Amino acid sequence: MKSIQNIKILTLTAAIALSALSCTNLGDDMTNNPTPIDFSGTYSQEDQMGRPAVNTVFTSGENKDLFNVTIPSEQNAAFQSMFQTNLEALSPAYSQPGDQNALGLDAAAFTGVLATDVLNVSLDGTTTFYDGTNVLTGRALNDDVITVELLLIFGGEDFTENPGLSDDHVDMNDKAFLTSFPYLASPW
Amino acid sequence: MKKFKILIGLGITAVAGFFMVAADHIDAPAVQGGSSDITDFYAFQGENTSNLVFVANVQGLLSPAKTGDAAFDENVMVEFNIDNTGDNIEDLVIQAIPRDGKMYFFGPVAPSQTGLNSVIENTATNAGVVAITPYGSEAIVSSYGGMQFFAGPRDDPFFMDFARYSEIIGGMASSFNNPGSDTFAGTNVMSIVVEVPKAMIGGSGTINTWVESKRK
């Protein structure tokens, strides 16, 4: 709870330090191309995503497309109420006054975080969805995000409620990730 | 438990059958199964801890037999959005757009317009290009100005017992199995990976970030 509140409260005044790199080899690549590459036109949004599974789990069917074309700064006003209704239906304990998850968030507060579907990422250290200590400081490849979300939905104040629903018992990927770029495992 | 089953009425898995919706795979009718369908988004500190890595995956659930034919759509731009002022409006974008077997990257750059409609910021100072790795080849990567780039098929890094989740939501099961079964095992996605110096996106503090697919 504290971490999430801190993240929300944070006033970020980081200076945008766009590095003053001059031309890269990209310029050569483009100018050597016999026909100029056409990058013209307007590109219109079709899908978007911040945190895993948010649109899938919390948006009612008829609104899933709308969620994908609502900019994040307008998502809370448009969807928080729906998210809360759906959360309370999915995990009825949340509909009791005062009921909270292990982050200390009640239904309104939890869905208030989720409805703005952006991933909060720390530039100062550990980046993880949740590792037992750090909360919402990024999303690493091996983070068990589904179990984290199931625990926050079903696990109650101390992660002990509804044990049959709060862990899918798939704890890692089917291929090992790489320690170096591009990090993702080769395809099957 | 009763209310858990009521979910069906909420339309989460509205139609009978096996709905493959997970992290963001096939999350909504307009995009599901198409070239703009984002399956997942990751952002994490790089091997070089001065860098941050962004990963966007599209076109999920590719079987090995289908992966060789999968391709990025030249009409679909994938855009990483970075808000470093706390208002959930993008201050910087990194755009990825394929042309003729290569993926071009523009940014981090302040976009000329924010929101649902974008133009390609192809005059950005920060830019790069990488050959799209063919299926079956070693990963082709490139570096420009301290950034690294990759585009091509990879194993889907997402893992979940989605089949059992669907059974629970559908009222056909009351709990997960232990051990569970990874519904995404053995499937591939089309991946875009870009690693950038943190100094290019704010340097320190917390950013809010999300990924979008946009079609011309």
Whole-number radius of gyration of chain A? 20 Å
Strand order of the largest sheet of chain B: 1-2-10-9-8
Counting helices, strands and paired strands, the structural category of chain A is: mainly alpha
End-to-end separation of chain A:
39 Å
Tell me the overall shape of chain A.
globular
Report helical residue fraction of chain B.
Answer: under 10%
Reported for the largest beta sheet of chain A, the result is: none
Tally of separate domains of chain A: 2
Order of helices and strands of chain B: HEEHEEEEEEEHEE
What is the mean pLDDT of chain B?
90
Unreliable stretches of chain B: 1-20
Oligomer: heterodimer
Gross geometry of chain B: globular
Largest interface: A-B, 97 and 125 residues
Q: How would you describe this protein?
A:
- The complex is a heterodimer of chains A (188) and B (216).
- Chain A is built from 7 helices and 2 strands; from the N terminus they run ααβααααβα.
- By secondary structure, chain A is mainly alpha-helical.
- Chain A folds into 2 domains: 1-32; 54-165, no CATH class.
- In chain A, helix 5 (72-90) packs across helix 6 (107-115).
- Chain B has one domain.
- In chain B, 10% of the residues lie in helices and 39% in strands.
- In chain B, strand 4 and strand 5 form a beta hairpin.
- Chain B is globular and about 55 Å long.
- The N and C termini of chain B lie far apart (45 Å).
- At the A-B interface, helix 2, strand 1, helix 3, helix 4 and helix 5 of A face helix 1, strand 1, strand 2, strand 3 and strand 4 of B.
